[in-house]
Amino acid sequence: MFAVPLAHAATEGDLSGARAQMGFSLAWHIVVACLGVGLPLLTLIAEWLGWRTGDPALRILARRWARGMGVLFAVGAVSGTILSFELGLLWPGLMGRYGQVIGLPFALEGIAFFIEAIFLGVYLYAWDRLPPGKHLLTGVPIVIAGVASAFFVVCANAWMNQPRGFELSRDGRVVSVDPWAAMFNPAAPPQTTHMILAALMVAAFLTASVYAVALLRGRRDRYHRAGFFIPFTVGAVVTPFQLVVGDWAARFVAHYQPAKLAAMEGVYRTGDHVPLTVLGISNGHSGLKYGLEIPSGLSLLIGYSPDTVVRGLSEVPRSRWPAVTGVHLAFDLMVGAGLFLLLMGGWLALAWWLRRRTGADGVLSVPGTRAFLTLAVLTGPAAVVALECGWVVTELGRQPWVVQGVMTVRDAVNPAPGLLNGLWLVLVVYFGMTVATVYVLRRLARDQPVPIAPQESDVPRYPVT
Amino acid sequence: MLANLTLGVMWIGLTCYALFGGADFGAGLWDLLAGRSGPGAPRRALIEHTIGPVWEANHVWLIFVVVLLWAGFSPVFAAVMSTLYIPLTLTALGIIARGAAFAFRKASTELWQKRLFGACFALSSVLTPFFLGTVAGGVASGRVPPGLAAGDLITSWLNPTSLLGGVLAVLTCAHLAAVYLCAETERLGQPELGAWFRSRALISGLAAGAVALAGIAILHADAPRLFHGLTHRALPLVVLSACAGLAALALLRRGPGLARPLAALAVAAILWAWGVAQYPAMLVPGVTVGDAASTHPVLIACLVSLAVGSLILVPSLWWLYSVFQREPEPAAAPGEPGR
Predict the structure, then answer these.
(1) pTM of the model as a whole
(2) Which residues share a beta bridge with A288?
(3) Helices B85-107 and B55-72, packing angle to 10 deg
(4) Could you please report the per-residue DSSP string of A210-251?
(5) In this structure, are residues B51 and B202 in contact, taking their beta carbons and an 8 Å threshold?
(6) Does residue A36 sit in the same domain as residue A48?
(7) Is residue A205 assigned to a domain?
(8) How does it sit in the membrane (chain B) (predicted)?
(9) Which residues does chain B have within 8 Å of residue A415's beta carbon, measured at their own beta carbons?
């Protein structure tokens, strides 16, 4: 194994271009990937309920979601492939040296993805070739493999936050690699759990949003109510767990990546009785301005006591500071969006409980007030905002490192000139793909379904407006 | 030993990608050349019907190769990706356009949309294998030195061997697809469609053969090391490839079912001939498999997980292909809710 000498970007513009391209294609893929993890679960629930009850509304819902799933999986598969290319195209310094350390989770992810693709092919295309129960079973590996691939990929990202499982020799070679230790680094458990729950939430709330719009427009039939209720319930159930896991993840960061937590909370000086500052922007050297301070709030959150010491940015050399304002605002926005989703889930639970006590019609009667539905439309965008902001916190909070404490982004970049042109090309292609994806998904939601399976001959007769 | 094993597994992955993924790309080329929307419709329908359920699984072979290259031979991955970043970026965009447009076309109903997405799907199906071929040519002719972007960013992929690789890749994909589709029409009992694809299989096969013959002269002048390897150590494989290819062409009319594995064998043999000719060099001339291989724990971990994974993968993959090779099962009586 020979050492890969590190190089620097051809120009500053190329470095920025590479960062922007990676960031943009990741930010795009992460939404589609979340739908790819969560949507199969929702579809299976709808198909299972439809099979159990014979209700055509539920079965047509399952069929539509399955078609959307097919489109989203294709888009997710290709946009994910690009990411594995970009790791080499844009960051060969990182991959040349540490590719072998994080190779294992990616190999495992490849297997999981393979299984997902195989069973998706069967699930989507063999609807008319398999009996309903068997068909339902072919969907189960899609869900399991989807969650597994999210787990493996985030393990690799967690390694960038907590690099383990290797040693560096004097001449810069990576020696004595332990790929399992690298994969199961300390950041892996909180990060993977946080991400998988986030994926379920994004898929659930985004889907629910679409049907909330329809309900608001007065389409209150069983089909639209089910389309709203199934995913919204899944989202509402997952959200409280996410709050606990998020707290765990933040506490983890406080312990293992103090500079990132300091940026998240805008803490400059180490000390106890540290206030929790909500919003506000950095003054560049000592604190946040325009923020709302809760005395001793941060110390209480992290150590359950106002005497808890929180380490500030002043412990880190200035050149190693992440962009405080960006990380802090992204973090607050994520928490705010999460709390909004928690409240909405609570509202649904309360309404459901009240209805049950007063004995009104079944579980499909969601709170029908306009206020609830209008806010419910916002849950999808809120979940996406929380997702993207959480990702910004993880990535921007690690800067200037690509691998925490080991390699900077600057050292990882491809020294070839012209990287900036790649960014423009990628932007153009992704713009086209975004427009087409949204357009096709909207079409799929409106079209009358084609009867694929003979056992579903009642489905196309079901009136859907 | 472990390094060679990893390389071998990676090469098997590359072969599978060429045979399965390549055929999907080739189908895209025939989609482009299927004619006007009227007479072209049944041809396009056959293509869509055939590759629809399997292309995503076939595509994963590429990810498999990429991941194994970076896990097993990180410095080679870094060198190839950084020097050849232009054709590889175009490949990546081609992959996006191909996959997304195919899924979009399947989901759209109006003719103009089908045309737009179809054109995008078909065009990128030609460009992607072309650029991958140029990458193979650049590596095979020793134009990728170790280090980051250490080779020439342009001539590493715009050179005689790369162009040969690109054209050969497109023609090979087209040939494989036409042969596969020809066999598919036989199974489905559609003789007119079969005749159309048979003549295309013949033309593309002869064209690929002609380009390969011309390639001998090109490699002799442009990549003497590769030429030497192909005409000495790898000669049996080259001969096998030529024989299998000719036999496939000869069998097209009488037994398209047999032509399919023979055409695949011809392509696989030429890929392995390249590997054998170049071995043990990974980056010609200096970097060998042993130089580039990761440490043993990494190789063992990857190989063991792949072995365990393949216990699930192989039967599933087999099942995927077989579900779509048999006719639909008789379903429940119409009108009865599915139970």
Answers:
(1) 0.89
(2) A282
(3) 160
(4) HHHHHHHTT--SHHHHHHHHHHHHHHHHHHHHHHHHHHHHHH
(5) no
(6) yes
(7) no
(8) Multi-pass membrane protein
(9) 82, 148-149
Number of domains in chain A: 2
Query: A245-278 pLDDT, tens per residue?
Result: 999 999 999 888 888 898 898 888 888 888 888 8
Residue count of chain B: 339
Domain-embedded: residue A14: no
The beta-carbon neighbor of A75 closest among B103, B117, B306 is B103
Q: Which residue of A has its CA nearest to B309?
A: A111
- Specify whether A440 is located in the same domain as A362: no
Structure tokens that stand for A5 in this block = 């000498």
Q: Tell me whether A89 touches chain B (CB under 8 Å).
A: yes
If residue B151 lies in a helix (H) or strand (E), which one and from where to where?
none
Query: Which chain A residue has its CA at the smallest distance from B293's CA?
Result: A1
Complex confidence, ipTM: 0.88
Classify A190 as helix, strand or coil.
helix
Lowest mean pLDDT among A20-34, A328-342, B185-199: B185-199
Closest Cβ–Cβ partner in A99, A122, A179 for B70:
A99
The residue segments making up the domain with residue A264 are 238-415
Residue A190 resides in a domain: no
Return left, alpha or beta for A178; rule: phi > 0 is left, psi -120 to 50 is alpha, else beta: beta
Of A400, A415, A430, the one marking the end of a domain is A415
Task: Determine the structural domain holding residue B237 and report its residue range.
Answer: 2-300
How confident is the model over B248-267, as pLDDT tens digits? 988 888 877 888 899 999 99
Beta strands at B281-283 and A292-294: parallel, antiparallel or unpaired: unpaired
Q: Is A105 within 8 Å of chain B by CB? A: no
* Residue B282: CATH number of its domain: 1.20.1630.10
Contact (CB<8Å) A458/B335: yes
CA distance B64 to B261: 23
Q: Are residues A437 and A463 in the same domain?
A: yes
CB B315 within 8 A of CB A117: no
- A450 touching B, CB under 8 A? no
Burial class (CB in 10 A: 0-12, 13-18, 19+), A144: middle
Nearest one of B81, B77, B65, B76 to B6, comparing CA atoms? B65
Of the CA atoms within 13 Å of residue A132, those in its CB half-sphere come to: 22
Pick from A374, A396, A415: which residue ends a domain? A415
- How many contacts (CB atoms, under 8 Å) link A and B? 290
A339 and A320 in one domain?
yes
pLDDT digits (tens, 9 = 90+) for A439-449: 888 887 776 55
Using a CB-CB distance cutoff of 8 angstroms, which residues of chain A are in contact with residue B291? 1-2
